[in-house]
Amino acid sequence: MHGFHATMTARPGRGAEVVELLLNAPSLPHADCVVFLVGRSAADPDTVHVTEGWTSEQAHQAFFTTGPAQALVAALQPLLTGESHYTDEVPVGGKAAF
Q: Is this prediction's pTM over 0.85?
């Protein structure tokens, strides 16, 4: 298993657009993507968090070489300010229900 937690800062007032793009990400239906959670900071709605879990690091890397993944990254870039921060993690279990 391979995963990470990313924190992105949207340009002022653009957090909802970042969330919308992420919630329609091409990784969601991908069989090797086993966790994909999107959240926003309660204190700052322009701070967006993503937690991803993949069956392997290789599957994650392979996915990001695809056209749909590259298009997502390109669409996100103009909405973000500064560098995104990543923390690696290994998914071990849990639950998400919405």
A: yes
